[in-house]
């Protein structure tokens, strides 16, 4: 497969993630879409690494994976807290901070 | 069948699994099934990483995403309650507009990428895990340490958040 076809695949993954971010109200649903976006970026880095024959892109992909894991853990803990204190996880029903 | 042909077929298969899983993950009304679609997308992506000769990244991805993040998401779905699993539908017009926006994003990015002077073929230089390890402890030592600090901070924050007693 040529390099451009691989990059198109990563683009499609990113577009799916953005669609999910736009159409989900549930906090965990939004996190799932966010994971897809971050995955698309990691895939991009690995493709660049392969295209240039340089291993540094893979290092970047590892960093993206590590930070995405942190983000998922914190995000899910926040979603749990929301369901416990505000009794909802839907982004449009959380209006405690609205002025 | 030649070896290269089988390899190409596998890549197409994994790419299809990734895209189908991603579509399932963002469009299914049942959140639990959406999480399962996310798992399919992760699995397909591990195959893609192996095809791109990034074996260590593939292994890490499998371990962290399928082994940890997906489990966390499933646990969070279970703990946030049953009434929240079946999601209400947005109006069709809104979803069509969101689809249109993401399609525009895809087309714009793809157009930009088509203009850029990419190499036609992949480079033949070997990508070894040994070289990856060397990079991690030499060139990227400071970012590596910083990320371990971030992970410790994130874990501490999660524990503080999740074990807090309910106020009032």
Description:
The complex is a heterodimer of chains A (99) and B (168). By secondary structure, chain A is mainly alpha-helical. Helices cover 78% and strands 0% of the residues of chain A. Chain A is built from three helices and no strands. In chain A, helix 1 packs antiparallel against helix 2 and helix 2 (27-52) packs antiparallel against helix 3. Chain A is elongated, with a radius of gyration of 17 Å. The N and C termini of chain A lie far apart (54 Å). Chain B has 168 residues and is mainly α. The model of chain B has no long low-confidence stretch (mean pLDDT 88). The chains are: A mainly alpha (99), B mainly alpha (168). Chains A and B meet through helix 1, helix 2 and helix 3 of A and helix 1, helix 2, helix 3, helix 4 and helix 5 of B.
List keywords for this structure.
A: 99 residues; mainly alpha; 3 helices; 78% helix; 0% strand; B: 168 residues; 75% helix
Topology of this protein?
The complex is a heterodimer of chains A (99) and B (168).
Chain A: H1 3-23, H2 27-52, H3 56-85
Chain B: H1 3-27, H2 31-51, H3 55-79, H4 92-115, H5 129-137, H6 141-162
Class derived from helix and strand content of chain A: mainly alpha
Order of helices and strands of chain B: HHHHHH
Shape of chain B: globular
Number of strands of chain A: 0
Distance between the termini of chain B: 69 Å
**Overall pLDDT of chain A:** 88
Radius of gyration of chain A: 17 Å
Distance between the termini of chain A: 54 Å
How would you briefly describe this protein structure?
The complex is a heterodimer of chains A (99) and B (168). Helices cover 78% and strands 0% of the residues of chain A.
């Amino acid at each position: 497969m040529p390099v451009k076809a691989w990059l198109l695949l990563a683009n499609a993954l990113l577009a799916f993630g953005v669609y999910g971010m736009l159409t989900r109200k549930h906090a965990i649903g939004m996190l799932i879409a966010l994971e897809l976006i971050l995955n698309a970026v990691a895939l991009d880095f690995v493709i660049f690494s392969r295209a240039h024959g340089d291993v540094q892109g893979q290092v970047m992909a590892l960093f993206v994976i590590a930070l995405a894991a942190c983000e998922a853990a914190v995000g899910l803990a926040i979603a749990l807290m929301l369901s416990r204190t505000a009794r909802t996880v839907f982004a449009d029903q959380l209006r405690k901070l609205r002025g | 069948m030649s070896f290269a042909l089988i390899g190409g077929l596998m890549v197409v298969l994994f790419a299809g699994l990734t895209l189908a899983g991603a579509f399932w993950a963002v469009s299914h009304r049942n959140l639990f099934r959406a999480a399962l679609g996310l798992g399919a997308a992760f699995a397909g992506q591990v195959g893609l990483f192996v095809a791109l000769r990034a074996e260590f990244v593939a292994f890490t991805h499998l371990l962290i995403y399928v082994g940890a993040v997906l489990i966390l998401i499933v646990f969070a779905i279970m703990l946030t309650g049953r009434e929240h699993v079946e999601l209400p539908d947005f109006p069709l017009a809104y979803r069509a507009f969101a689809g249109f926006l993401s399609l525009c994003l895809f087309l714009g990015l793809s157009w930009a990428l088509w203009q850029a002077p990419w190499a036609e073929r992949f480079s033949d230089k070997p990508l070894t895990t040994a070289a990856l390890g060397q990079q991690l402890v030499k060139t990227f030592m400071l970012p590596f340490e910083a990320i371990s600090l971030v992970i410790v901070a994130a874990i501490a924050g999660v524990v503080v958040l999740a074990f807090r007693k309910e106020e009032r």
